[in-house]
């Protein structure tokens, strides 16, 4: 049975992905599926597994570049209310994978819980943030995680405890297909104090990053002990434009897209930055964004 026939109420065929991403470029998804609950997500994953359909999981699209050719197979989105719940008990917080980070931060700060405020200004969902261990200079999401519920590509639901999880710079050991929910261990602090810290971080971010433009955040990971932005800046590439894509003149590790930009424009800038930095500094830049 085809995916559309098996899950007609939650499946759309040949849907544009560009509007679902922050870069706003790229082609169509063969299918987009929005499961309404855990059981449905499990059934979709099992169906895809049996029928050899690849699955890509899309959160809020803030760290992904979709190729102009689009994505074959299924793009799975956990946007239903069941995946967007936050519950707080003492210093323990449970959040669905579809919860947007800014919402989780607001809820925890309101409850006088600190730990996640270091993520202020970082876009994305809990699932996406855990996968790539989102963070910045002041900390990352991995440092607060106590348990993660995942779904394997075969459709099996399991839990990963704190001691089975490892997080490092922009990477985590969670390699199962789908993150369903996560638990965090935070610590009590006054909402005013937490807000003060957040405000400081937010001001710094706003002053240095092109937050008002269309981008997917930092494009490259920082090479050990170095800053990708600083290297690209030193290579004189700020403001370089190919088609509708441009290396931000505010922060050189951001590529911003203008109306009419294509994915190829962005990828050509990525190649240009990589080859210049390699030539000039002997450093291989590694992508932070996901390219589908
Ligand atoms: N710099 C330049 N020119 C630029 C950009 C930066 O000279 O165009 C210099 C800055 O002056 C500073 C150094 O490079 O001396 C580092 O820059 P910044 O403080 O902006 O931090 P970053 O290393 O570029 C990292 C994360 C950001 C995160 C900030 C703040 C990476 C790849 N980037 O940026 O994360 O917001 O720290 O915590 O790790 C992201 O991952 O998408 C992201 C934006």
Largest sheet: 5 strands, antiparallel
Q: What class would the helix/strand composition place it in?
A: alpha+beta
Radius of gyration, Cα only, in angstroms?
Answer: 19 Å
Mean pLDDT: 96
Q: How are strands sequenced across the largest beta sheet?
A: 6-7-15-11-12
Secondary structure: number of strands: 20
Reading the helices and strands in chain order gives: HEEHEEEEEHEHEEEEEEEEHHEEEHE
- The number of helical runs is 7
What does the overall shape look like? globular
DSSP helix fraction: 25-40%
Distance between the termini: 26 Å
Summary tags:
20 strands; binds uridine-diphosphate-2(N-acetylglucosaminyl) butyric acid; four-stranded mixed beta sheet; globular; five-stranded antiparallel beta sheet
